[in-house]
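Incident review: delayed structure delivery

Summary: a single-chain prediction request sat in the queue longer than the usual turnaround. Root cause was a stuck worker, restarted by the on-call engineer. No data loss occurred. The affected request and its eventual output are reproduced below so the record is complete for anyone auditing the incident later.

Affected input:
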Amino acid sequence: MNAAARRIQRVYLTLTLGNTLAASFIWGVNTLFLLDAGLSNFEAFAANAFFTVGMVIFEVPTGVVADGWGRRVSFLLGTVTLAGSTYLYYLLWQFSAPFPLWAVVSVLLGLGFTFFSGAVEAWLVDALRYSGYEGGLEAVFGRGQMVAGVAMLAGSVAGGVIAQATDLGVPFLVRVGVLLAMFAVALGLMHDVGFTPERSTHPLRATRAVLSASIENGLKIPPVRYVMLAAPFSAGVGIYVFYALQPYLLELFGDPRAYSVAGLAAAIVAGAEVVGGWLAPHVRRLFHKRTSVLILSGSISAVLLVVLGFTRVFWLALVLLTLWAVVDSAAMPVRQAYVNDMIPSKQRATVLSFDSLMGSSGGVVVQPVLGRSADLYGYPVSLALAGIFQSLAVPFLVASRRQGSPADRANASTEHPDKGPAEETLP
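Output delivered after worker restart:
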């Protein structure tokens, strides 16, 4: 990396650190927070589903903001929107509000996150290319994931400890404060380079154009399309498992008010992100194709979830959770690099937002279904079903591999000019 690229990477890592820290204060206690407000398991996960509905609804319109007004503007709007909707969540908990109000505010939370999705990643890739960086993206995304993991580890553990020392609402107030601080940081450090926004005076027309560009540069490109079609299963399951593990681990632990244990689940996932981010470029060098990593990761993750659903031992559950999180995390930077190398710069934020939309659409369906199964049959059965759902992503990844995209082989290690050692058995 030259000096300009290193500077861009530092800004990216700073934004990732602050944003993840803010978000993660509630991740370890969110499900407990919803249940404490009087919601059932079904309603709690339905509220999470409305959050993903918000992401589905607003991904394309906020893509217009990112590509038409700038990625910096999109990030700033995200911090303000997420801070406001988080505070509303706190008020709903204070007044034990009925479920319809939770649904509305959950949609607003989804809106806040859509301002981030795609915009920061697109800003990074375009700025790096503009600076002259020509290396592989796995290493940069891996560092970002490691920083996010550290932030998540700190935030989720702190959120659980704060909730146990005070109450379940205080972590939400802490999140609001950190988000407002990140607004100031981004205002001073984040500037669009290597990208010129194209503003439109017709928002609806621009939204249609963005949707059309998303389809043209995403779903109409076969290898990208199949990766996107896998996202509803993998992303939807990931969201459910992360939040279901909070009450499930408390159930195994035997103390329903041990909120720090619930924070431990999020902390393990965070630590796994650090390890996975470090492993990603090393794992990539073992395989000639990026899809090999994705297929193996999806298959192993599905099996681990099924096994997790059958365990009744707290510490064994923690081990399985850790393995599942590491396997998923090590594949994520590889997936990001694979998709980014297949889409054009001009529509990068748009296509990445559409990819996020596809993942969120799975969460809309998967979360209430698995939440209802937890009400009827318990969390173990719902986790085993989650593993079955996740396995459905693998055939789409195999289909993407068969398209033979040059991005599948990009930045492959020269140590394996033909095939990686673990690739022989893959289709």
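Verification: The longest helix spans residues 222-253.
Action items: add queue-age alerting; document worker restart procedure.
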